[in-house]
Amino acid sequence: MTTPSSQSLPQMLLLPAILLVIFAAVAEQQQHPVPRPGCRDKCGDITIPFPFGIGNGCYRDGFEVICNDSFIPPRAFLADNRTINLERSFYDDRGYYQSSPPLELLSISVATSKVRAYAAVSYRCSLNMTGRTVSKGGEGKTFFMSQHINFGNSAFAVSAARNVLIGVGQIVEPVLVYGNGGSVPNLYCRTISERRYMQRYNPVKNGSCEGRGCCETTLLHPGKSLTVSVTEEDDEWWELYPCSYAMLVEKSWYSFFTPDMSGNKTLHQRFLRGVPLVLDFAAGNVSCPAEGQPPPPDYACISQNSSCADATVTPGYVCRCSGNYTGNPHIAHGCQDIDECKLPENPCSNGGICKNRPGGYDCPCKFGMKADGQGGTCTHVFPPAAMATVGGIGGILLMAIITFLIILHKEKKKTKEFYKKNGGPILEQANTIKLFTKGELKPILKNSNLIGKGCFGEVYKGLLDNEQVAIKKPINGSVQENDQFANEVIIQSQVIHKNIVRLIGCCLEVDAPMLVYEFISQGSLHDILHDNSKKVALNLDARLSIAAQSADGLAYMHSQANTRILHGDVKPANILLDDNFAPKISDFGISRLLAKDKEHTGSVIGDMNYMDPVYLQEGLLTEKSDVYSFGVVILELISSRRAIHSETNGVVKSFLEAHKKQKKATEFFDKEIAIPEDLELLDSLASMAVECLSLDVDQRPTMMEVAEQLHKLSRSRKVQDVCH
Ligand SMILES: *[C@@H]1O[C@H](CO)[C@@H](O)[C@H](O)[C@H]1NC(C)=O
Ligand SMILES: *[C@@H]1O[C@H](CO)[C@@H](O)[C@H](O)[C@H]1NC(C)=O
Ligand SMILES: *[C@@H]1O[C@H](CO)[C@@H](O)[C@H](O)[C@H]1NC(C)=O
Ligand SMILES: *[C@@H]1O[C@H](CO)[C@@H](O)[C@H](O)[C@H]1NC(C)=O
Ligand SMILES: *[C@@H]1O[C@H](CO)[C@@H](O)[C@H](O)[C@H]1NC(C)=O
Ligand SMILES: *[C@@H]1O[C@H](CO)[C@@H](O)[C@H](O)[C@H]1NC(C)=O
Ligand SMILES: *[C@@H]1O[C@H](CO)[C@@H](O)[C@H](O)[C@H]1NC(C)=O
Ligand SMILES: *[C@@H]1O[C@H](CO)[C@@H](O)[C@H](O)[C@H]1NC(C)=O
Asked: Where is the Protein kinase domain (predicted)?
């Protein structure tokens, strides 16, 4: 978006322009201080608000967080159980009781006194029919894992309102046993075998957890000590459905997926780090002070304009900001006034002008209007026509200001709407991605920073948080399905590999969301091979290394456990090279989601020159489609020719024909690199390209195999060099 320069604005609009600056400053101040002053506020993407904290003096007793920076992004754990008496353990596959690693945090909210943490999935699997009847891991015929959670007298407890107990399997009874001395009844549900009662019941359905293959039940009581395990009956289908699962998990998080029922620990394998569990925490383990009574020692609700409320786990209290205030009640000046007038929903109706004040807001009538009665509708004192004549110059100026304020308000409202439409609330919860504001990106989005332009939009280069970034700004590809966009962003932000371009953040406050990536210096492989102005002579070793490392990146994408990630548009233009000519794969998933134009909706629009013909015919994009495209990339690397698609004499077609006839394709090799001693290696690369380009999808190697083969070739070369 371009802004009109201020000189061109009429003089009388300057005053509102000054107001604009003041508003911006106020908005800045609204960023609440969350950690203790001088303490780290983030661990990776997780915000760490006090009473939680990292390092000495930064946390309240029992809320220490350990940030392990050896992970990328860093991961946050609740500190060991010495101080907070937190215990989690589970039976392992052999039935032994084990103490588990510390609790890993997903997010922390002081406004609701809740944290989300990873919990394990309990399971029970049979190796054979008789195994089913044997309990507790007898002779290895059944193996199972039960989770035992005990928060002792720490501040934490499993939330009843925000979690559910879920069971998955043919016939399974997940059980939640409370360890509160039998005062709380156990909780269970039950799935019914579709096969056994086929006639009577509907078949299993994806997304429907109502008894067939999946059952779910709500918790009635919070718990400090509980065990989650699975029991099930004999079942003649143990071979097809060897495993049953039980999990205590955040409400609405798990969507039943029928393939989870079959196979060996399939569901467990999908969520190896665990599933999100919501915990309540109390700021202290006594009741709130009665009115007029002194606060208890070490009272936690210390901010002004904060208050105390009973915790769900008794005895205990939580801290809240008072009504019309928001922020962190656990630190001095943590609770700050909410500017109600900036909320998307204008609290003043009926012609009132919203005026914020600490702890509330007022709605006085506009100039020239008065309220008819208390808090009622504003009506004009004079008819509008009379006002115009009376008002004169002052009136015009006032009208201009009011008009400007209305425009400003509309602009703000639009920003908020876009933010919501583009999945802002979902991404906020995910916490794995940075959400930039329009204001943060604006200084970068100017012509002098423009480094690329394509049919999908523009790319700008700039500096954000001291890091070189590339910002992708789509021209008109607005997001249709915000959930899909948000989910893609979350998935991409978790794909972290040295040969894949890292997604740092996005800006949602615009119609078409902008994406912020790490900046890669040397441009694309396409430019370096084919663009005369950017061409760099690459020797065979460099090309081999680019191929091998790009294959690593793609193989990593394909091997992601939780979500199958396909690229869908592998080509030299999407392989970027850094200072050392190490490749990084770019532009998968969301970039194309955004570029989706009206004519191609529903289909993936990859580059025709690299597109798998089998995909074009059958319409099903698979890992093997990427392998095909990668075959074309190898061909370009050895030939330095641009792959132009054509039904009759395209490069790929003539290459395949030449190879078929002579078992070689020497004429295709780039003369610059085809020295006699390297012909053998080039032949190997050509054969690999031929395999990738096979029209029989099953004949194509996997990306992992391609990567291994390329590394092998690369290694054999290094050995040769040493010998020479
Ligand atoms: C971080 O995690 C690694 C790998 O699990 C572990 O070896 C290391 O001890 C951890 N560091 C800290 C400070 O906990
Ligand atoms: C946590 O508690 C368990 C059970 O009491 C104990 O076995 C384990 O050693 C404790 N871990 C730490 C780090 O204190
Ligand atoms: C399932 O996997 C476990 C190892 O995780 C293995 O011990 C067991 O034999 C497998 N069960 C079947 C039925 O293949
Ligand atoms: C299945 O059960 C039989 C009888 O108990 C046992 O001999 C056999 O080893 C079991 N098979 C496996 C794969 O555990
Ligand atoms: C409450 O907390 C204090 C300090 O954190 C601790 O000394 C005390 O044992 C706790 N009381 C109970 C009943 O858990
Ligand atoms: C559920 O979805 C998966 C993957 O899309 C599919 O393989 C499976 O057949 C579906 N289940 C049912 C019952 O339709
Ligand atoms: C907020 O706190 C300040 C300072 O203690 C106090 O003067 C003010 O009255 C409080 N506001 C409300 C609405 O209670
Ligand atoms: C918030 O502000 C509004 C408007 O001033 C007021 O009516 C309401 O009572 C306030 N809420 C609280 C909890 O103070």
From this structure: 445-714
